[in-house]
Write a structure and sequence with these properties.
By secondary structure, this protein is an alpha/beta fold. The protein has helices at 3-13, 15-31, 40-51, 71-80, 84-109, 115-123, 126-132, 138-158, 161-177, 184-197, 205-230, 244-250, 253-269, 281-305, 317-330, 339-354, 369-377, 414-417, 433-445, 459-470, 497-502; strands at residues 386-390, 423-427, 452-458, 479-486, 489-495. It has a 5-stranded mixed β-sheet, sandwiched between helices. α5 (84-109) runs antiparallel to α6 (115-123) and α8 (138-158) packs parallel to α10 (184-197). Residues 1-10 have low confidence and may be disordered.
């Protein structure tokens, strides 16, 4: 057998092992967290599906319903019933599709045998795995992005109209998945222009302009809607403006360093020849643009407009590009016949070091609303027991918030998914003079005579109101404690002397 034949056989002989490691990663990172508690935005998904995108309470946050995603978990609920697992299965399947296209992109843009390495590089990113067990639009967005870029490459490789039209149609869907995905269209356009200008494609300028114009025309309705919503974007900002440190952290340089540095160190130790990057520079260019541009665009938008959108989940599209860029860097040090062993080593390392093996069932998210609700239920509350709910949504402020805010409503959707009993008293997201007057009246009229009451919600809101009530004269003789832990969800229990004596 010749050396070339041996090089071709070795990678294939590792395929069963690579598939076994991939299956173990998917089982541990994607499937095990499926039954865990919904986090806040997943409960919003359920609210929209059950009460409709036109529900009056959603007018305060119109951006919430600007997505085609909700039809997917709605169908899943019809097929499998309502549960955390059924809502998350579509995202798991979509991220599986994304992995297939990531493998195809790596084979086409980096090296024919780089697919497995790229897959495991993506699986090394917690944010990437998070999308697979999340009943939100981000898994759909990643799948659509990877598929659209793959179709664009096929169109530019072959120059066929049908593939160009398919690319434009799928790319046009991306902005309809989430309004935050607008920066990616610069990548689509930049890659096409680069290849046409470099004459790396049979597509002529005329054909290229025609397809990109078709894409632009399909985006006009979404762009107009996004511009209309941007006028009030400041009312929905949940994070401060990003710093340069935040921008640096979004690039996950450690993965690129480990992939490139690790491959270089192994190659130096075994004295492998350095193959360099053999593909056209346009391939490396689009991957670097994918990796570097998207976070930079959201960073600049946040800094210049003051409407900060630099939220980790909004950066979800960059994660597949990060894994592919790290693979492209590693490709400069990995000879053709070594891709299989290096991919296997990376996959095993990801499985071992990211498996959270000290925890039997890792949670999908740090917000354990279901666990908190179960702990409250275990108290066997009387129907008259007051339960204070500070809203977890920043939109819950006067005049939208009021003590008699009608339920069911978007601002308190967690009451509907994991009900706990008792009598609800609705508080805003932040303290205000109106809220404190309401709380003082409630303390004197209702809470002090109730024997016990609870505050249930996000940790900061609960702790703030717990401190506020504890300082009131009415509760100087009361005992207060927190149930839990439930991640970033808190439950504070106040008990009067009679309730403590009865325990």
């Amino acid at each position: 057998m010749t050396a070339a034949q041996q090089a071709a056989v070795r990678p294939r002989s590792l395929t069963p092992l690579l598939m076994a490691v991939l299956a173990a990663c998917i089982l541990r990172f994607w499937i095990v967290p499926l039954p865990s508690s919904f986090w806040l935005d997943e409960m919003v998904t359920s609210f929209v599906i059950h009460y409709g995108a036109q529900h009056a309470s959603l007018r305060v946050a119109p951006q919430v319903t600007e997505t085609i995603y909700y039809a997917i978990p709605e169908l899943a609920e019809k097929l499998f019933g309502f549960s955390e697992v059924s809502y998350r299965i579509p995202s798991l399947a979509l991220m599986g599709v994304a992995l297939i296209f990531i493998a195809c992109l790596a084979a086409r843009l980096i090296h024919p045998q780089a697919a497995w390495f790229a897959v495991f590089a993506c699986l090394s990113l917690k944010g990437f795995n998070y999308q697979a067990a999340d009943a939100r639009p981000y898994g759909l967005g990643t799948a659509v992005t990877c598929a659209a870029l793959w179709l664009e490459i096929r169109w530019l490789d072959r120059g066929r109209w049908i593939e160009g039209i398919a690319f434009a149609a799928l790319a046009a869907a991306l902005w309809r998945v989430h309004l935050i995905y607008w920066p990616f269209y610069a990548i689509f356009a930049g890659y096409a222009i680069w290849r046409i200008a470099a004459r790396e494609t049979p597509v002529t300028w005329l054909k290229g302009i025609a397809i990109l114009t078709l894409l632009g025309a399909a985006l006009v309705p979404v762009a107009l809607r996004a511009l209309a919503l941007a006028r009030n974007a400041g009312a929905h900002v949940i994070v401060p403006p990003p710093t340069l440190r935040d921008l640096r952290g979004s690039y996950h340089f450690l993965l690129a360093l480990l992939a490139g540095g690790g491959a270089g160190a192994v190659g130096w130790f075994f004295q492998w020849p350095r193959p360099g990057f053999a593909r056209p520079y346009s391939g490396a260019g689009v991957l670097l643009l994918w990796w570097l541009w998207f976070p930079l665009a959201l960073f600049l938008y946040s800094r210049f407009t003051g409407n900060s959108v630099f939220v980790p989940r909004y950066l979800s599209l960059v994660l597949a590009g990060t894994g592919l860029a790290a693979t492209a860097i590693a490709a400069c040090f990995i000879p053709e016949q070594r891709w299989g062993p290096m991919s296997l080593a990376l996959g095993l390392g990801v499985l071992i070091f990211m498996g959270q093996w000290t925890i039997a069932r890792p949670r999908h998210d740090n917000s354990d609303w279901r666990g908190a609700a179960q702990a409250i239920k275990a108290l066997h509350l009387a129907p008259s027991t007051p339960v204070i709910y500070p809203s977890p949504f920043i939109e819950a402020r006067s005049p939208v918030w009021r003590p008699d805010y009608p339920l069911p409503g978007f601002l308190y959707c967690h009451l509907l998914i994991y009900p706990v009993g008792g009598t609800p008293y609705l508080f805003p997201f932040e303290s205000s003079p109106e809220a404190e007057r309401y709380a003082a009246d409630l303390a004197g009229r209702t809470l002090s005579s109730a024997g016990r009451f609870l505050i249930y919600g996000g940790d900061r809101n609960v702790l703030r109101w717990q401190t506020w009530f504890r300082r009131r004269l009415e509760f100087q003789q009361w005992r207060t404690r927190r149930l839990g832990p439930f991640g970033d969800v808190e439950v504070a229990l106040f008990e009067g002397p009679s309730a403590v004596a009865a325990r």
